[in-house]
Write a structure and sequence with these properties.
five-stranded mixed β-sheet, elongated
Length: 162
């Protein structure tokens, strides 16, 4: 905007806007900032789902660049007779714990294709699933999203379909 000067700093501030190193003030402000998110999960958590209203045995959770190829693979899996659904987190923080938990309660296994080698999203999916479904990670070291055929091959492998 115009007409206002603002101070931007990496320091914790008091409720009046002054920088502070007081542990008490830092703790209060950190709690306030976290609650701004956690108290509004109902409006901040956003996901897109496909086929979760159907009878399903297998789930895919995909985010970002892997979402479209994963959805194509889910559609191909359904054409092959695999009762598959998909959940796409639109944002990952706050993480959509409740939607993932609900999906995990409806499926036996969940595949998480990711563009990394250490399973960042799959660990969050496993945490949110709370043991209701087995979570499988499909990683990639490249910058290109997985091809739908590669995701489908992994869906078939993990679900035991030939």
């Amino acid at each position: 905007g115009e007409g206002y000067g603002i101070c931007v700093s990496p320091y914790t501030h008091t409720s009046k806007g002054y920088a502070t190193t007081s542990e008490h003030d830092q703790d209060r402000m950190a709690i306030r900032l976290v609650r701004k998110v956690t108290d509004h999960l109902d409006i901040l958590t956003r996901v897109e789902t496909h086929y979760l209203d159907d009878e399903v045995d297998f789930g895919v959770v995909a985010y970002g660049g892997n979402a479209r190829p994963a959805l194509a693979a889910v559609n191909m899996a359904r054409e092959a007779g695999i009762r598959c659904a998909m959940l796409r987190p639109i944002i990952v923080w706050p993480f959509p714990d409740e939607p993932v938990y609900k999906m995990a309660g409806r499926v036996k296994k969940i595949l998480v294709p990711e563009l990394n080698r250490d399973g960042q999203l799959s660990r969050e999916v496993a945490r949110a699933a709370r043991g209701q479904a087995e979570v499988y990670f499909l990683g990639s070291g490249g910058v290109e999203p997985h091809l739908p055929s590669a995701v489908l091959a992994e869906i078939k492998r993990v679900s035991g379909v030939k």
